[in-house]
Amino acid sequence: PDTGFIKVTVHPLPIVDAGADQRVLAGTAVQLLGTGTNIKDYLWWPDTALSCANCPNPKTTATKTTLYTLKVTSDFGCSDTDQVNIVVFCDQSQLFIPNTFTPNGDGQNDYFFPQGTGVGKIKSFIVYNRWGQKVFERTNIDINVREQGWDGSFGGTTLGSDTFVYTLEATCDNGEIVFLKGDITLIR
User: Fold this and answer.
1) Does the pTM exceed 0.85?
2) DSSP for 52-89?
3) Is 148 helix (H, G, I), strand (E, B) or coil?
């Protein structure tokens, strides 16, 4: 019989936390927060639209609900994973619709147009006068483009100061539909 000895060194496993799940508005900037111990390398996936896939805290813009996985590896090749769910929703707060505009040709506030973030397309944008007559309509327009908005005219005629009603249907970046209606005052 014979006896042999070997020294075995057990290194600690890495431990990772991908952060708490988040619920955010479409178009919101989001920072993922990977933390832990005994970590050498980071790998996030899916890595589409992340500022970096191999860093602890990448940034992205939330456009759809995504479950992110973070895999970390130690100096000794051991690994651990964790996940974080970014739930994206849409609501009227993403749209800014002014309540007055002054289409007087001075280059400021000359158009009435939808503005906001996290909205892909304006499916329908309609303005009515006080008698319910449609004075402006655009479909499938981009958000934040003033030239696609209303210039305060109808049928080639400049309209005077008055209050009008609008309806708006928009598609958010995550595919949800948002409806909005209100009034706008045209000031000459």
Assistant:
1) no
2) -SSSSS-EEE--S-EEEEEEEE-TTS-EEEEEEEEEEE
3) helix
Question: For residues 130 and 141, what is the distance between their CA atoms, to the nearest angstrom?
Answer: 25
User: Which residue has 């397309």 as its token pair?
Assistant: 121
Number of helices followed by number of strands (H, E) in the chain: 0, 17
pLDDT band at 1 (very low <50, low <70, confident <90, very high): confident
Contact (Cβ atoms closer than 8 angstroms) between residue 137 and residue 128: no
Residue holding tokens 């499938």?
140
- 3-28 residue pLDDT tens: 999 999 999 999 999 999 999 999 99
Can you tell me which residue has the tokens 């759809």? Answer: 64
The CA-atom distances, in angstroms, between 112 and each of 6, 33, 98, 100, 132 are 80, 40, 8, 8, 18
